[in-house]
Write a structure and sequence with these properties.
The chain is globular, with a radius of gyration of 16 Å. The model has no long low-confidence stretch (mean pLDDT 90). Strands 1-2-3 form a three-stranded parallel sheet, with helices on one face. The chain has a domain of 55 residues. By secondary structure, it is of the alpha/beta class. Helix content is 34%, strand content 14%.
Length: 91
């Protein structure tokens, strides 16, 4: 179930000063944050190629982009994507 940000924002008269977005992907939600005048945006995106697209998209915006995955433990792990799994299945 996805929550409707606009409805929540209006229903609860939210005064959001910032967003920590984990798994930013291509920043599809950024315009939503911007339209609600949310100034402090921190985006985490672990995949370098995806982060590059995000950097290009938000290059003129006042946001912070971090190339890290977040989790319970401070360690390095191998991250699998759907694309990578598809390639393994085809071999």
């Amino acid at each position: 179930m996805l929550l409707n940000f606009d409805q929540l924002f209006q229903k609860y008269c939210m005064n959001i000063r910032g967003v920590i977005h984990i798994g930013a992907h291509y920043g599809q939600e950024y315009n939503l944050y911007k339209n609600h005048n949310i100034k402090n945006c921190l985006f985490f995106e672990p995949l370098p190629k995806t982060l590059k697209v995000l950097q290009e998209k938000l290059q003129n915006e006042d946001v912070v982009l971090v190339n890290k995955a977040l989790g319970n433990d401070n360690k390095k792990i191998e991250m699998y994507t759907l694309c990578m799994l598809s390639k393994k299945d085809n071999n």
